[in-house]
Amino acid sequence: MNVVTPPAKLTAKDFATDQEVRWCPGCGDYAILKGVQKTLADIGAVPEKTVFISGIGCAARFPYYMATYGFHTIHGRAPTFATGVKLANPELDVWVVSGDGDALSIGGNHLIHLLRRNVNLQFLLFNNEIYGLTKGQYSPTSRAGTRSPSTPMGSVDNPISATQLALAAGARFVARAVDSQQKHLPGVLVRAHAHIGTSFVEIFQNCIVYNDGVFSDFTAKDKIAGSQIAVEHGKPLTFGADSQMGLHIKPGAFEIEVVTIGEDGITEADILVHDETNKVLATLLAGMQGPAFPVAIGVLYCDPAPSYEQGIEAVKQRTPSKTGGDINALLRSGHTWQVD
Amino acid sequence: MDTNTALKTEFNDVAPRQQLESAVVRFAGDSGDGMQVTGGQFTLSAALAGNNLATFPDFPAEIRAPVGTTFGVSSFQINFGSRVIKTSGDEFDLLVAMNPAALFVELKGLKPGGVIIVDTGSFNARNLRKAGYLANPLEDGSLDGYRVIELDISQLTLDAVKEFGLTNKEALRCKNFWTLGYVFWMFANKRKETVDWLRQKFAKRPEIAEANVAALNAGHALGETSETADGFQGFAIPQKEHAEPGLYRTVMGSEAIAWGLVTGAKLAGLNLTFCSYPITPASSVLHTLSNMGEYNVSTFQAEDEIAAACAAIGASYAGSLGVTSSSGPGIALKGEAIGLAIGIEIPLIVLNTQRAGPSTGLPTKTEQSDLYQAVYGRNADSPLVVLAARSPADCFDVAIEAVRLATKYMTPVMLLSDGYIGNAAEPWLIPDIDALTPFPVQFRTDPEGFHPFVRNPETLARAWAIPGTPDLMHRIGGIEKDYDSGHISYDPDNHQKMTTVRAAKINGIARDIPEQSVEVGPDSGPIAVVGWGSTYGPINRAVSNLLDQGKTVSHIHLTHIWPLPANLGELLGQFDKILVPEMNTGQLLTVLRSEFLAPAKGINKVTGQPFKIRELELAITAEMEA
């Protein structure tokens, strides 16, 4: 009788490479790296079956620091390489790491099509609202008026909302997290990993050199309670130090408003309960911005549908075989003639 | 009347047909007249009658151009006969003109004294004006140098299909099969295969099938029973003499490429992942492969050209054979991704079905002007392998060679075809793929001494270790890698070394490809005509004709464009003069001059049409006499 030794459980450290991490000291990417390594350990990821794929940018260096398979590709195209990997081997566990410029500017088209196809992988968008690797130009998520080397008088373009774009493109899993909130981030990543289909996670990431503190109005320790709402399926959408504030459908309008329990006759029963399968609600949550609204983090939307790979497999199953895969028979099908 | 007809039939049966060694027929009509289908059915019938043949579909970029216009003319040319056919033919023996525009556009290609079939039903004032005729050419004597067969095909078709209760529009759509029936009579071709095809094609609308069959039969019957004005009794083409024994079929270039890729992947022991974005004239390869799942093929219609290239690279990275396909403008978009594939040294096949450019150019017209793009068209020092197919059937062999080199050397391979080869058909001696030598890929599994850029000392190919393999986890990407560890390296000397080794790997392939031989003519002498790609047919025929006339001239044709065969420089040195005919302004010419300082001259043509044999004969003769 063979004795099978169960593999030793891997720790977060087992997912780190020996390569020196080259992000700026204090960069939010360190925290995300730590969170991802912890998540992989927690979910029992198999290193040889795990692939990290990135495009170009600061975030795109991520695969070099993961002791898994890694592919650092070209700017904006990581979703397409990942799709090819999954076409060739659907069994691989693929994580795409991207930034706001990579995913929403040069690679915006690919992101849309990845999401609508619902390829089974995790897509992590590190949003720092700036171009870091090219030294600080404004990005497609930068707020209008952002001063940068290429917009010294302030940018004119309006920013894009990553999560609203994802929902519009047909994503079946849309979540948000914050780099520094290490208790929250791994939970979101575990959910993303468990979801079959493309799991889109926007991670607010602080660029300490070119855009320091851009999210501090809702990520600073003393701001979290009052300006963030951590949504959970089936739980009331409340926030604030004593969970006294909540979201409520404005009577007579397709809008949500912030209310305070105990004021104006509002009771706990009036507070919206999060339903992560409700796309309309997810869209409203994704659109909330301070200071009027709290910023929603957590799983905004999760409503699984068949993945691209499952669809491909279903087509394969229902395609009739003509020759049983015999190429010689294929070449001899149709009209032929013999010359003696 | 009935008695009369019977008499004529008898007479026709004994009347001599005009003997031809081979014939060129051009079907021309409106885009919606079904000329490509008609040509396809004629091709099948000619092939089954044992003819050699070559075809040339020539159609506008517009799907349904305005009716009756010259730019809406869609044509299909076939050259068939008993001699070895190498091109779709120069001048036509027979022109079928379904409307005035078709006559207007195509008449210049007809031989003096050639036969024209016209549908007089379409020669009305409106159509004549649209075609640009000031007077009716059927009446003004301008066709006196030809044999014109005037038939009111529109009316004859309506009469033939009356009983099937079709709408007038549907009935008129049978015109092309009526015409085909008549042309079948002209060449004594059999109708059975076409009848079978129609019944299969319109299985769900039997009345349409039967109406077309009736039209086909009526056209044929009219040929048999009527007399043309000058007593012309059709053509007779003798059976082909010596073809290699075996089982044959007709094959189009796009099919042969698809089947060659599938066969190559099987010989390599890999699945095929074909990623493409629709573009004329390359899409037919995607169409062919998209129904071939049972041969371990996956196809992916990407959101754009870049995505298609990147997905193919991703597939190769994960252990499949990634292939991407496009035409020139699409290949340009794929350039950055191809550079990555060169940098990470991964197998990738990039198929370019070339078309006339720059930019959108003439999407449905052929050209071979992407040789610079293939050999040189990327940023930085980024060599890859370039191969070119010379004919539809050759696509099969060259596709297999592309897979062999891509997998053995861990490199992208650019495979050049063109719009002419892709759409043209020729008979093909079907190979037995079990008789081909396999070249199975060995994925790296041994962790001992592994890093991602550890190289085979002989081929210089790096190890191919795919995700899913235990203990070989590694990271690769576009940043330069250390020669000895595969980690990121910004070291200047290392970049020099890696650049050198990438080039040496590709150059070394010259030792693993066949030595360049001479197609026809002596191995040394006064003049060599050097070609590549789809100019094979016209060059070979032109040189053969000159040899038959007792002239001394040789034909050299390249399949391996980069690296060039190891002996090519020495071979070219055996000739006093070198002529390079190309459907571009001199791209191989530049490569040969720069690689070998060869005193080569070009013969160049970019009209969107293949070379004519005659024009090459004249150009070669002129150079010989110069």
Structure characteristics:
heterodimer, A: alpha/beta, 8-stranded mixed sheet, 3-stranded antiparallel sheet, 11 helices, B: alpha/beta, 6-stranded mixed sheet, 22 helices, 20% strand, globular, disordered N terminus
Describe what you observe in this structure:
- The complex is a heterodimer of chains A (340) and B (626).
- With 340 residues, chain A is of the alpha/beta class.
- Chain A contains 11 helices and 12 strands.
- In chain A, the strands form 2 sheets. In chain A, strands 2-1-3-4-6-5-11-7 form an 8-stranded mixed sheet, sandwiched between helices. Chain A has a 3-stranded antiparallel sheet with strand order 8-9-10.
- In chain A, strand 5 (173-178), helix 6 (185-194) and strand 6 form a beta-alpha-beta unit.
- In chain B, helix 10 packs parallel to helix 16.
- The radius of gyration of chain B is 27 Å and the shape is globular.
- Helix content of chain B is 37%, strand content 20%.
- Chain B has 22 helices and 22 strands.
Number of helices of chain A: 11
Q: Strand order, biggest sheet of chain A? A: 2-1-3-4-6-5-11-7
Q: How many distinct helices of chain B?
A: 22
Largest sheet of chain B: 7 strands, mixed
* Spatial extent as radius of gyration of chain A: 23 Å
Helix/strand-derived category of chain A reads: alpha/beta
Interface with most residues: A-B, 59 and 70 residues
Shape field of chain A: globular
Topology:
The complex is a heterodimer of chains A (340) and B (626).
Chain A: H1 28-43, E1 50-54, E2 69-72, H2 78-88, E3 93-99, H3 100-106, H4 108-117, E4 121-127, H5 162-168, E5 173-178, H6 185-194, E6 198-204, H7 216-219, H8 224-227, E7 228-231, E8 238-239, E9 245-249, E10 256-260, H9 279-286, E11 295-302, H10 308-318, H11 327-331, E12 337-339
Parallel strand pairs in A: 1-2, 1-3, 3-4, 4-6, 5-6, 7-11
Antiparallel strand pairs in A: 5-11, 8-9, 9-10
Helix pairs in contact in A: 1-6, 3-4
Chain B: H1 2-14, E1 18-19, E2 22-30, H2 35-48, E3 52-58, E4 73-81, E5 92-97, H3 100-106, E6 110-119, H4 125-131, E7 147-151, H5 153-160, H6 168-172, H7 175-187, H8 192-201, H9 206-225, E8 235-236, E9 246-252, H10 253-268, E10 272-276, H11 283-289, E11 297-301, H12 305-317, E12 321-326, H13 328-333, H14 335-344, E13 348-354, H15 371-376, E14 385-388, H16 394-409, E15 412-418, H17 419-423, E16 425-429, E17 475-477, H18 492-508, E18 525-532, H19 536-548, E19 554-558, E20 560-562, H20 568-572, E21 575-582, H21 587-596, E22 600-604, H22 613-625
Parallel strand pairs in B: 1-8, 2-5, 5-6, 6-7, 10-11, 10-12, 12-13, 13-15, 14-15, 18-19, 18-21, 21-22
Antiparallel strand pairs in B: 2-4, 3-4, 9-16, 14-20
Helix pairs in contact in B: 2-7, 3-4, 7-9, 8-9, 10-11, 10-16, 12-14, 19-22
